[in-house]
Write a structure and sequence with these properties.
The longest helix is centred in the middle third of the chain and has 18 residues. This protein has one domain: Lysozyme, CATH 1.10.530. By secondary structure, the chain is an all-alpha fold. It starts with 7 loop residues before the first helix and ends in a 5-residue tail after the last helix. The chain contains nine helices and no strands. It is globular, with a radius of gyration of 16 Å.
């Protein structure tokens, strides 16, 4: 997937993914697509990537890899996934530890996770968006594609909620006004994905 050729339509609809990705029994309010949303998505799609330097990369990857070892025993896959999570988080302007926490709650790092409602992959994205976005070759079980969708949406909601993470997480989950989902993400971050 070449993100530099992502269409405006793709960017606009990314933000809607999360509403359907994890919508369950809780009531959700569909987002409104407006010019502000379009602009926010344009900005977040082309941000910086990666680590500040190789020492920071080594420290973070070693630390997070040790925490994820029990869930993902394959060291090569684990490190590649962590690099992708970090790059997509930084690109979107999110803390990688928050994204790790969301992934734990959504799929427990199972890139083949499939919810009863059909949400797929690490960040639980609904497959109908592939058709809506005009990218029929996108595979939501591919980590980078799934993470690109999820982090873009989460960042948009964080900006929309003026940095109020609880409200952004509730929007991501499709449970605006509820606190259960944000609490679960915060618990994962506090217990496992805290920053050293």
């Amino acid at each position: 997937m070449n993100v530099n050729t992502a269409s405006l339509r793709t960017l606009i609809l990314f933000c809607l993914l999360a509403v359907y990705a994890t919508a369950g029994a809780e009531e959700f309010i569909p987002p409104v697509i407006d010019d502000e949303m379009r602009q926010a998505l344009r900005q977040v799609m082309y941000g910086p990537e990666g680590f500040e330097d190789h020492i920071a990369a080594e420290v973070w990857l070693t630390d997070m890899s040790n925490r994820l070892k029990k869930t993902i025993p394959n060291a090569d896959y684990r490190l590649q996934l962590l690099k992708t999570i970090h790059a997509e988080s930084v690109r979107a302007g999110l803390e990688p530890e928050l994204v790790l926490s969301v992934i734990q709650v959504e799929s427990n790092f199972d890139r083949f996770a499939l919810s009863p409602t059909g949400a797929r992959g690490l960040m639980q994205i609904m497959p109908f968006w592939i058709k809506e976005l005009g990218h029929p070759d996108d595979n939501l079980f591919i980590a980078q594609i799934n993470l690109r969708y999820g982090t873009t949406i989460l960042k948009y909601y964080l900006d929309k909620e003026k940095g109020q993470t609880s409200k952004a997480l509730a929007r991501y989950n499709g449970s605006v006004g509820k606190t259960n989902y944000p609490r679960r993400v915060y618990a994962a971050q506090r217990k496992k994905w805290f920053r050293q």
